[in-house]
User: Fold these one by one.
Assistant:
Number 1:
Amino acid sequence: MIHASFSPNLRRSAPSRTKALCAAAFAAFALAGCATMTASAPPLTVDQLVERAKKGESTESLLASLRGSRERFTIAGSEFAKLKERGLPEPVLDELQRREIQAAKEDEWLRNGAFVDPWWRFGYPYGVRYVVLPPRPIPKPKS
């Protein structure tokens, strides 16, 4: 067996092997990322939920499909009564409202500069700013 220090061909090939291994690892990670991406399903609509409820699909399966989707629904308050009349179960309506409230909270969080102060959630001493006011004079009681 020839030692690497005595063979000039083996010495030159070590960096190329390293580059080839790095390239292969990068390709494997890139392809693994592509393999996990699937074709997205068409967006879920409220009308689809109503039709599925009319066909007799269970409330649990409607809730599961609603929770599995990433759709954001904007439903007016008057529409909830109409959806109830059209046959949408109450737990599904509750989930629609919960998702709408959660989306509004996330929008508000982003609008109020959540990225400006990343320490806000840790509380004292990070998120607290003290304001020192001068002492107020004590008024004398009227006699």
Note: Helices lie at 8-36, 46-54, 59-68, 77-85, 90-111.
Number 2:
Amino acid sequence: MSTGSPPHAVKLSAVSEDVPPKRYRIGELAQYTGLSRQTLHNYTRWGLISELAWTAGGHRVYGEESFARLRRIIELKRTCSMDEIRDQLQEIV
């Protein structure tokens, strides 16, 4: 009986530190946040969130940091106007 790791196990030390962060399409952001695609498009147009890039097919992709910004926007919407939210988010940049 062997007490070693199974042959298919991956050692964490073997995983490269250069693994790129996950990128999310707008539908995934909508799914995970509960916001509509149109709301997310509006937030992008208004400069509240930014896409990282565009796919070859013309889809926006967003980074993981978008979730923190969206969480903050949702919190601020309870008490602030969109102009006030924009001002506060510009201070965070």
Note: Residues 66 and 91 are 16 Å apart (CA to CA).
Number 3:
Amino acid sequence: MNSSIFTKSIFACALNVVTVLALLPTEFLSSPVFNWWDKAQHALAFAVLSLLGFMAFPQRLLQVALGMVIYGGAIELAQLAVGWRFGEWEDVMADITGVMVAGLVRSLWRKWRGAA
């Protein structure tokens, strides 16, 4: 299997998993009060998704980053619509932080690899 097809498949699967997890009804949701651990989970998930996206589409980094921000906003809107989840703008900010961290990690990785 072509590595490009493999990374694109992994990225697509990860997006599907995050979407399902974000929209599943959860009986033990924390209250919609600012929760640092929840925000850290958002940032980590979007950092990983963004890194996968950067690997899958290395020539389209800006599009991947913008797409991830739009995806994060769409998830929050979908959570508002389902009624059993909470859509929060703070989550979108945490998602954006994750995308930015992924960009920084990618940049540092490329710099380190170039020095090696």
Note: Residues 3-22+34-115 form one domain.
